[in-house]
Amino acid sequence: MSTDQQAIQSTNDKEIIVIKDMNKWYGNFHVLKDINLTVKKGERIVVCGPSGSGKSTMIRCINRLEEFQRGSLTVNGVEMIDDVKNIEAIRKEVGMVFQHFNLFPHLSILDNLTLGPIWVQKRPKAEAEATAMKYLERVKIPDQALKFPGQLSGGQQQRVAIARSLCMSPEIMLFDEPTSALDPEMIKEVLDVMVELANEGMTMICVTHEMGFAKKVADRVIFMDGGEIVEQNTPHEFFDHPETDRLQLFLSQILQH
Amino acid sequence: MKAKEYKPLPDQAAPISTIGVIAWLRNNLFSSPFNIAVTIVIVAVLMAIVPGMLDWLIFSANWSGTTQADCVKDGACWVFISAWSQQIFYGSYPDGEIWRVNLSLMLLAGVIALSFILPARLRNKVSVPAYLFLPFVCLLILDGSHIGLRQVTTDLWGGFSLNILIAAASIIIAFPFGFLWALGRQSDMPFARSVSVTCIEFFRGTPILALFFMGSVMLPLFFPADVSVDKLLRVWIILILFMSAYMAEVFRSGFAAIPKGQYEAADSLGLGYWQKTLLIIFPQVIKVSMPNILATFVMVFKNTVFLLVIAVPEMLQVIMAALSNSNWLGGHAIEGYLFVGFIFWICCFSMSLLATSIEKKLDTSHKH
Predict the structure, then answer these.
(1) A88-123 pLDDT, tens per residue?
(2) Do B283 and A106 touch (CB under 8 A)?
(3) Between A88, A98, A105, which is nearest B365 by CB?
(4) Which pick of A161, B94, B170, B255 has the fewest CB atoms within 10 Å?
(5) B239, B172 in Cβ contact below 8 A?
(6) Nearest C-alpha of chain B: how many angstroms from A151?
(7) CA–CA distance, B338 with A248 (Å, rounded to integer)
């Protein structure tokens, strides 16, 4: 039985990410202030907020691309401490998709996908390639497997990036503004893949301004500003009955167009 | 309704004034009064110099013979080069053992060729060890005492083959060293960083001539009297360290060109430090650094002539010794130095061509 099937079957109230009083400073600049967030297994969370509000920084702390100075973080039962083995253990559970795709330009698409499974999970090459092709089919670009990233469109590259993370069979997927660098026509193909993933029960934290996506799949929408979580609620309550004036202002500004 | 028949118009010859030699001359040499003047001046200068030069170099030159007495014509005495050719290429390496030098050179050529011929999948697995073992294999072959051949001590090694082999041996070993220093320089560990910075700045900030003198004159003073480290070995180590410092700086600029997102993507996949460095960062660094790497190779190769200041019999040293030989006191300096310059130019130019082809080969970015 594969890990994803187990994930779907055992969707219960298990708390997979627990962030307690997380604080982070860049020098003297206080970027994250008392962040408290608990994510249950299978939960889909959308994080939004103005630029500079700390939303990217927060999700980058979850797989330790950024360090935080105070508070605690537990991912899938492993507490994040300053230890290489510990960090690598957490990174194996967490997949991440970046705004600028960050595919490896010197490797073919297939090699991009099999690199992690072969070198980190020590899986045999043939098996890793079979898995890679399975996920390329899922993101609907199996025919591009032997090309290089530079030959693909932005939307295709981002779908490859999603497939690359999925090949590591992560428990959690983090998305850091996955559609912000894409042309309007390509946003849909990436969002479709993400919606499909959400429907399969993947635990997701997604920083995005795609409010349609938030309404469609999110269990919870979080609004951040000035480094703190200002408001969090179900999509319905979040969009229709925002509690704070700050969120009302934010929504009125992004929904006006 | 029947469609009209389409008949393509026949191709016509281009106007004679826009193609061919005349158009080329007009566009490139006589396009403006200033260009006409420049062309005339250059042609006049060439006409004054070239015939005399060609006459001296080729037509009136002495091509055959074995001694200075055979140089009877006015032109260059190439007999000087041919008479000394064995020393120029092999130094004092014993006659019967010269095949060992040739074998080493062929191994070098073979390993280079191999890295071009092999398919991508095998290249790293075969070529990298082949390169790294090559200097030591050549050392065994040339010295001979450890593999059952007659020992040839390093003071007999020399000539242009020495220039090539010591440059290649230094470059090969300096490659991983330079990479480690570059990694150390941007490391978070204070010890690794300070050692790397000190080494890089020392060897980059000191002229190679001073380093050679230090290696040959000063270093032995620090060793106990009964320990003698071979002069050529000391020179090799100095060249490696010197070259490593330059390579480290080349790699550093390569590292700076790699977007931060590449590190983050590698981290988020859970790759360890060395996996990330060797699988993701290093191949991209090599690619962006290729022009500078090759420029550094050429520099070190040319720097091997400085070995003459500490009396290592490399090619230029052999020529200078030949010039002061009592049988050849006829003033053949121009022939000798021209020849050295020509040989080095041929080699460096080939390396440039090689560099261009490597750059094309490595380019998978498909930039628009």
Answers:
(1) 888 888 999 999 999 999 899 999 999 999 999 999
(2) yes
(3) A105
(4) B94
(5) no
(6) 7
(7) 82
Read off the pLDDT of residues A178-193 as tens digits, 9 standing for 90 and up.
999 898 888 999 999 9
Q: Rounded to an integer, what is the distance from CA A121 to the centroid of its chain?
A: 21
B368: nearest CA in chain A?
Answer: A150
H helices then E strands: how many in chain B?
15, 0
- Chain B: give the shortest CA distance to residue A239, in Å: 32
Cβ distance B265 to A65 less than 8 Å, yes or no, reads no
CB contact under 8 A, B264 and A102: yes
Distances (CA, A) of A66 to A24, A39, A62, B181, B291: 9, 19, 8, 26, 35
| Interface membership of A120 toward B (CB under 8 Å) | yes
Cβ within 8 Å, pair A120-B271: yes
CATH H-level superfamily of B152-310: MetI-like (1.10.3720.10)
**Contact at 8 Å (CB) between B159 and B315?**
yes
Query: Under a CB-based contact definition with an 8 Å cutoff, are residues B254 and B289 in contact?
Result: yes
**What residues of chain A lie within 8 A of the CB of B266, using their CB?**
104
List strands edge to edge, sheet with A94-97: A94-97, A172-176, A203-207, A44-48, A220-225, A228-233
List own/partner pairs for B270-274 with CB under 8 A and 24 or more apart.
B270/A88, B270/A91, B270/A92, B270/A116, B270/A120, B270/A168, B271/A115, B271/A116, B271/A119, B271/A120, B272/A84, B272/A88
One digit per residue, the tens of pLDDT, for chain B of length 368 reads 678 888 888 888 887 777 778 888 888 888 888 989 999 999 999 999 999 889 888 888 888 888 888 888 888 888 888 888 888 999 888 888 889 999 999 999 999 888 888 887 788 788 888 999 999 999 999 888 888 888 888 888 889 999 999 999 999 999 999 999 999 998 889 999 999 999 999 999 999 889 988 888 877 777 777 767 788 888 888 899 999 999 999 999 999 999 999 999 999 998 988 999 999 999 899 888 888 888 888 888 998 888 888 888 888 988 888 888 888 887 788 888 999 999 999 999 988 888 888 777 777 655 43
Task: Tell me whether A168 touches chain B (CB under 8 Å).
Answer: yes
* Contact (CB<8Å) A102/B271: no
Q: Are A179 and A127 in contact (CB under 8 A)?
A: no
Alpha-helical segments (H) within chain A = 3-9, 55-62, 84-93, 109-119, 125-138, 154-166, 184-199, 211-217, 235-240, 245-255
Domain ranges of chain B: 18-51, 152-310
- The helix or strand, by DSSP H or E, that contains position B367, with its residue range, turns out to be none
Quick check: ipTM above 0.90? no
Residue from B100, B96, B126 nearest B111 by CA:
B126
Instruction: List the one residue out of A227, A231, A230 whose CA is nearest residue A33.
Output: A227
Residue B105 and residue B160 in contact, taking contact as beta carbons nearer than 8 Å:
no
List chain A residues with CB under 8 Å of B262. 102, 104
Instruction: Identify all chain B residues contacting A148, using CB atoms and an 8 Å cutoff.
Output: 364-366
| Burial label, B3 (beta-carbon count in 10 A; 0-12, 13-18, 19+) | exposed
CB A97 within 8 A of CB A176: yes
